[in-house]
């Protein structure tokens, strides 16, 4: 013992590193197999190895500790509006881009491509969430841009497997990132309240140049090569515009970054407030159709929120279960203490249900790429996506807090992984529409496409089989959906909650072992009054099987 040693450090548990993120995730492996994406497993296994390497965990920690910095002017007073990132941010984006995930859903028609992409997104999100923001928006933008005249010019850059951090006009770059700008001070989620004005720079019309004047209160990833921006035209409803960082003449576009947001979490990623001073933009879609155009993009970004929150749920479970298995309290491992096992089993159920639902949604997105998707597939995409974003993203907030509590003080200090997950979790619930917006969007989609609602309910009934508890719960949901519209709005959160829980229960009944499905149904459908994680009756549950499936010891 040296003169500086006062005691031996005992019973402290290091955070798990070099995790087998793919091979230990039975729900994810099953989803890949079921959705015809088994071909992607070798590549995803390699990616999981890279994304959980000690160096990558260090990148994640450093990118969040050293937040982006705004430089408004250069040394001679010229306006440059440049955001500087820590090198670890670029390393994380390079890792994702070189895996080919950004354009994977659109590079081919190979079955399982959406599921393979979703799995890669989910694996990355378990290690670092902020670096998923530019890929999320870029992948979602591809779905919009591929129908525009601009597509042949941007296709190679958007689908590129290279990373290019240069701040140059987009035609000169090997790879492109696309952001989005919707929310304004006075509107928030009410995009119809936008006041930013777009004036034709000539004849006007689809694919033509406009000049934008106004502001955006949240403008994510401001160093992106272009943003899709909602703005009003003089004589129509809001339209959607491609607003590049550089103008065609090689000068910087008139997008002034006012400030970077100092956020609770998502600190590695820059979110900004901007003003447009006659900024150059190209009209995407038809005039006055900006909301439907940007909502198409937002449907994909909402799926990304579900996947990202599922990743948070999964990593929170991994951290908590690993710690509980190696930490000894009152003479035995914490994971063998009865009440702790109830908490861990509840976390395991929450995680598997979220992963199964998120991957099923990704498969539905692929099914809807066809010319005439079945009503049930349309329902999973258009109805279930906002409902899942409402529920899964909120569950991630609660689960990260519970996982932090499993670690006690060790989870509440920096640079604990669960502390970062706890800070990162709320953004998925807020971004792309808060909980109430998701529930109202669900009701609007049900009213707009009643045939999809019926197809979804029929699919749930089929999955429920002869399970009496599930059939009774579906009948209760159907009764809620028969209430007058004003009552449904008052009950919108309840409707969304019941729909998601039923969807998760039915998917688990279809795809998970009986022990998992039975436990989920018993604790979420039958014991519907449980409100605190771990406050479930586990006396009849096989907790050993649940925990071993969640993370093999």
Summed over residues and divided by their number, the pLDDT gives a mean of 95
Structural class: alpha+beta
Helix content: 40-55%
Uncertain parts:
none
What profile does the largest beta sheet have? 7 strands, mixed
Number of helices in the DSSP assignment: 21
**Percent of residues in beta strands?**
5-15%
Termini, distance in Å? 34 Å
Number of DSSP E strands: 11
Shape: globular
Radius of gyration (Å): 24 Å
Q: Care to give the gist of this entry?
A:
With 553 residues, this protein is an alpha+beta fold. It is built from 21 helices and 11 strands. Strand 6 (226-232) and strand 7 form a beta hairpin.
Task: Please describe the topology of this protein.
Blueprint: H1 26-34, H2 41-51, H3 54-65, E1 69-73, E2 79-84, H4 87-98, H5 104-107, H6 113-125, H7 133-145, H8 151-159, E3 178-181, E4 197-200, E5 209-220, E6 226-232, E7 238-244, E8 255-260, E9 271-284, H9 290-326, E10 328-329, E11 332-333, H10 338-367, H11 375-382, H12 384-407, H13 409-412, H14 417-430, H15 435-448, H16 450-464, H17 468-480, H18 485-490, H19 492-511, H20 514-526, H21 543-550
Helix pairs in contact: 1-10, 2-6, 3-4, 6-9, 6-10, 7-8, 7-9, 9-10, 9-12, 9-14, 10-11, 10-12, 10-19, 10-21, 11-16, 12-14, 12-15, 12-19, 15-16, 15-19, 16-17, 16-19, 17-19, 19-20
Feature tags:
single chain, 553 residues, alpha+beta, 7-stranded mixed beta sheet, two-stranded antiparallel sheet
């Amino acid at each position: 013992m040296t003169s500086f040693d006062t005691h031996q450090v005992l019973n402290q548990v290091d955070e798990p590193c070099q995790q087998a993120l793919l091979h230990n995730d039975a729900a994810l492996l099953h989803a890949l197999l079921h959705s015809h994406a088994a071909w992607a497993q070798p590549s995803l296994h390699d990616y999981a190895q890279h994304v959980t390497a000690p160096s990558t965990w260090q990148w994640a920690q450093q990118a969040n500790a050293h937040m982006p910095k705004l430089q408004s002017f250069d040394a001679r007073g010229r306006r440059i509006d440049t955001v500087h990132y820590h090198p670890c941010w670029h390393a994380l984006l390079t890792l994702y881009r070189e895996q080919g995930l950004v354009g994977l859903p659109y590079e081919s028609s190979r079955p399982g491509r959406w599921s393979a992409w979703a799995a890669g997104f989910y694996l990355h999100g378990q290690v670092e969430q902020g670096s998923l923001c530019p890929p999320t928006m870029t992948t979602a933008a591809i779905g919009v841009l591929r129908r525009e005249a601009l597509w042949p010019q941007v296709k190679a850059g958007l689908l590129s497997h290279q990373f290019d951090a240069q701040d140059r006009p987009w035609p000169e770059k090997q790879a492109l990132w696309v952001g989005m700008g919707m929310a304004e001070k006075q509107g928030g989620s009410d995009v119809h309240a936008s006041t930013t004005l777009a004036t034709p720079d000539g004849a006007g019309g689809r694919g033509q140049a406009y000049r934008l004047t106004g502001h955006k209160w949240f403008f994510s990833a401001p160093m992106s090569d272009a943003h899709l921006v909602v703005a009003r035209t003089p004589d129509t409803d809001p339209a959607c515009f491609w607003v590049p960082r550089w103008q065609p003449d090689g000068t910087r576009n008139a997008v002034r970054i006012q400030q970077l947001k100092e956020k609770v979490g998502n600190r590695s990623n820059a979110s900004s407030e901007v003003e447009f001073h006659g900024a150059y933009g190209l009209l995407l879609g038809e005039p006055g159709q900006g909301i439907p155009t940007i909502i198409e993009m937002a449907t994909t970004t909402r799926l990304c929120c579900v996947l990202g929150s599922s990743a948070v749920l999964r990593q929170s479970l991994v951290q908590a279960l690993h710690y509980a298995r190696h930490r000894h309290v009152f003479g035995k491992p914490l994971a063998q203490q009865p009440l702790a096992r109830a908490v861990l089993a509840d976390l395991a159920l929450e995680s598997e249900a979220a992963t199964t639902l998120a991957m099923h949604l990704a498969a539905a997105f692929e099914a809807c790429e066809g010319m005439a998707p079945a009503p049930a597939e349309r329902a999973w995409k258009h109805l279930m996506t906002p409902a899942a974003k409402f529920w899964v993203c909120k569950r991630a907030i609660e689960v990260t807090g519970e996982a932090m509590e499993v670690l006690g003080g060790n989870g509440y200090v920096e640079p604990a992984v669960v502390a970062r997950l706890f800070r990162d979790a709320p953004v998925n619930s807020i971004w792309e529409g808060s909980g109430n917006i998701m529930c109202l969007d669900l009701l609007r989609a049900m009213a707009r496409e009643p045939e999809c609602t019926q197809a979804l309910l029929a699919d749930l009934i089929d999955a429920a089989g002869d399970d009496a508890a599930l059939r009774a719960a579906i009948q209760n949901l159907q009764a809620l959906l028969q209430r007058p519209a004003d009552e449904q709005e008052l009950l919108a959160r309840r409707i969304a909650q019941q729909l998601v829980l039923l969807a998760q229960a039915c998917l688990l009944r279809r795809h998970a072992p009986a022990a998992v499905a039975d436990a989920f149904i018993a604790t979420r459908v039958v014991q519907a009054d449980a409100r605190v994680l771990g406050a479930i009756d586990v006396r009849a549950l096989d907790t050993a099987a649940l925990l071993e499936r969640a993370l093999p010891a």
